[in-house]
Automatic annotation (TrEMBL):
Quaternary structure (record): Homodimer.
Residues annotated for a divalent metal cation binding in this entry: H164, H209, H264
Annotated family: Belongs to the PdxA family.
One annotated Gene Ontology cellular component of this protein: cytoplasm
Root EC class: oxidoreductase
Subcellular location: Cytoplasm
Cofactor: how bound: Binds 1 divalent metal cation per subunit. Can use ions such as Zn(2+), Mg(2+) or Co(2+).
Protein's recorded name: 4-hydroxythreonine-4-phosphate dehydrogenase
Length: 329
């Protein structure tokens, strides 16, 4: 399958974190495979890393085998590993905006975002969004509730129906409308972005043992099961509501292409146990492909040269694969 034109764009993320280092390591690993274009201040890159400024994303493919292609932005302050600076915040936001615009305009094939520090962006740029996902939804003009977070690795794809909310609020948030939207976005993405013409989706219950027919909670019998029955009648291949404690062993994982879970830890514990270093965060429901490594800024090791680029490399490869699938659809 032919790759779509343009590079995979890397937005720099928080300069005080490990982003500059893992960008360099990812380029070194992928320079003969996938052209990258890093957006940020080249003064923040590790000493000795070969880089070259470009003024056209199309030039990245020619530059990438020999040097990291860079779309340069002057941040106005040096990088201090482990110490975020308010002066950097507006430029970090601008790097994300620039990358999203390149992909939307067709100059790049996909966007991979390196980790940001939301408190620093709020303090330095008044950034009002909980994270990348909501910001990218606004930039692309889609409603926030039409985007879905997926965590993926070769052995498992999981989607939490609720994300960064207190556990006590989860039952009230698990409405049939919300869960239906998550299922539909996930199914559409599996078909469009992962090339699965008839995706199989497993849906977890909320309560232990999926509620045991209402004896350990009513959400399964009152909300989840009726919704799944209605969607099955449309032709969707849906299993569940299933007991979450039996969904993630190797034999069970062969029975579905993605698992939809009811809350954050129900989804993230299994994938981080199976592949802690290689998990990828994918935003489903955007008009362009966006992935990110499944870790944060790691201030404690920034500048030490010990950051593991595995998740970033996986995120770039997955972005390229998703872009090919979209191009072929």
């Amino acid at each position: 399958m032919t790759a779509p034109p343009g590079p995979v764009v890397l937005s720099c993320g928080e300069p005080a974190g490990i982003g500059p280092e893992i960008a360099g390591s990812a380029w070194a690993a992928l320079r003969g495979e996938i052209p990258l274009l890093w957006i940020g201040d080249p003064a923040h890159l590790p000493d000795g890393l070969p880089w070259r400024a470009v003024d056209d994303p199309a030039a990245a493919a020619t530059v990438a085998p020999e040097a990291l292609p860079v779309w340069p932005m002057a941040f106005g302050a040096p990088r201090i590993p482990g110490t975020p600076q308010a002066a950097h915040a507006p430029h970090v936001v601008a790097a994300i905006e620039t990358g999203a615009r390149m992909v939307q305009q067709g100059a790049a094939r996909a966007l991979t975002t390196l980790p940001i520090h939301k408190a620093a962006l709020m303090a330095g740029a008044g950034f009002p969004h909980p994270g990348h996902t909501e910001f990218l939804a606004r930039l692309s003009g889609v409603p926030e509730d039409s985007t879905v977070m997926m965590l993926a690795c070769p052995a498992l794809r999981v989607v939490p129906a609720t994300i960064h909310v207190p556990l006590a609020r989860v039952p009230a948030l698990l409405t049939a409308a919300r869960l239906e939207a998550v299922i539909r976005v996930t199914r559409d993405a599996l078909m469009r972005d992962f090339g699965l013409p008839a995706p199989r989706i497993a849906v977890a219950g909320l309560n232990p043992h999926a509620g045991e027919d209402g004896r350990i909670g009513r959400e399964e019998v009152e909300v989840i099961a009726p919704l799944l029955d209605r969607l099955r009648a449309e032709g969707m291949d849906l299993a569940g509501p299933a007991s979450a404690d039996t969904m993630f062993h190797p034999a069970a994982r062969t029975g579905y292409d993605a698992a939809i879970c009811m809350y954050h830890d129900q989804a993230l514990i299994p994938i981080k146990t199976i592949d802690f270093a290689g998990g990828v965060n994918v935003t489903l429901g955007l008009p362009f492909v966006r992935t990110s490594p499944d870790h944060g800024t790691a201030f404690a090791i920034a500048g030490t040269g010990t950051a593991d680029p595995t998740s970033t490399i996986a995120a770039i490869r997955m972005a390229a694969d998703m872009a090919r699938a979209r191009a072929a659809a």
